[in-house]
Amino acid sequence: MTTTTRALPRVLRDRNAALHLTGAVVSGFGTSALWLVSGVWVKDLTGSDGLAALCMLAMWAPTLAGPLLGTLADRVRRKPLLIGANLLLAVLLLTLFTVDSPDRLWLLFAVLFVYGAAGVVHDAAESALVASAVPTSLLGDFNGLRMTASEGMKLLAPLAGAGVYAAYGGASVALLDAVTFVVATGLYTCLSVRESRPEPPPGGWRTQTAEGARFLWAHPRLRPLVLAGGTTMLFAGLSGATIYAVIDGLGHDPAYAGVLYAVQGAGSVAIGLLSGPLLRRLGERRFAAYGIALTATAAGLRAIPSDPVALACSAAAGAGLPCVLIAALTAVQRETPDALLGRTAATANTLVFTPNVIGLAAGAALVEVLDVRLLLAVLGPAWLLAALPLLQRAASASRTAARSPSDANPA
């Protein structure tokens, strides 16, 4: 925590780093607010828990094409691409003012899908631009602060979004998000970076994508972590689809999701600050395994219809879920040759986060036909099994990186 406190002044003294971090915080605030409110909006219009969960599915689905979309960031200049993606989303969000009945929900789902696709491209371009806009000596500090800031937005933005939604409706939250993208565009415009048009990489898109996948699968330390991350996100999708059914069981309005997400965000902020010492002490495999175990236990206990239990489980899930993501992505950054890092990182993100889409889709269907308490009671123990492979060989693959674990940015 002291290291993070000292890192902030160092990053903010660098103009490009400060602009980039501020832009990420501003746009992240709007994204987190819309992410929550879209589900509440659909729930209020239709009364369907399944359709509300499909909002998250629409935003996550483009990760299926992550490696291909990420390749776009290597074929054009990154700064104009970032600015164009932000402006596109700002304009697109304004169309949600026409969503005022269940018949218009197709537009909301379409916007969320494009939102997710643009986000994949945005993340790839941003990661590449940071490497050239921010001094190498600040990259570790910057990435650590960005992760903490991202989780902080998940703590604050859902409550703010729920408040705006309750007072003015879903379209007002869309407008708020559009404004954050315009502000972020202004900040990115001020970045002092010179880019030449990149040379087309050798081979076709399919060949470039396959290289990252082959490297990951053949690597004895990366493969188990990435597989554990994908399994965890599959179960996280199943668990996430139950959120509104859990809230119904607690006797609260759908907007109560804002409280649960805020508590979860607090847990994620805490683990973001503590991940460095824990990674050094435990090693990547045990750090990931303990995080999976904590999250799985929290998911199972959510079957208990109690407000204190629900809040405690949200905090525990927020602390546990990022562990395997931080461990896997840190290992990818350390073990991958620079020439393959972009494609390998994009492929790892797809392999880790694509199962979340499958989990959300399956959960949206299951929550309509099964009792949520039964579903969660089965989910928790099944999820625990994902931690076992990481614990079995922890002694042989628990080397930690010499670089800071804050170099990984799972947000």
Please tell me about this protein's structure.
It contains 17 helices and no strands. With 411 residues, the chain is mainly α.
Strand fraction equals under 5%
Summarize model confidence as the mean pLDDT: 80
Number of helices: 17
List the helices and strands in order.
Answer: HHHHHHHHHHHHHHHHH
Tell me how many strands there are. 0
Q: Which percent bin holds the helix content?
A: over 70%
Oligomer: single chain
Structural features:
411 residues; disordered N terminus; mainly alpha; disordered C terminus; 78% helix
Brief summary of the model shown:
The chain is mostly helical.
SSE diagram, text form:
Layout: H1 2-13, H2 15-46, H3 49-60, H4 66-72, H5 78-93, H6 105-133, H7 139-168, H8 170-189, H9 205-218, H10 222-240, H11 243-250, H12 257-282, H13 284-301, H14 307-335, H15 338-369, H16 372-384, H17 388-392
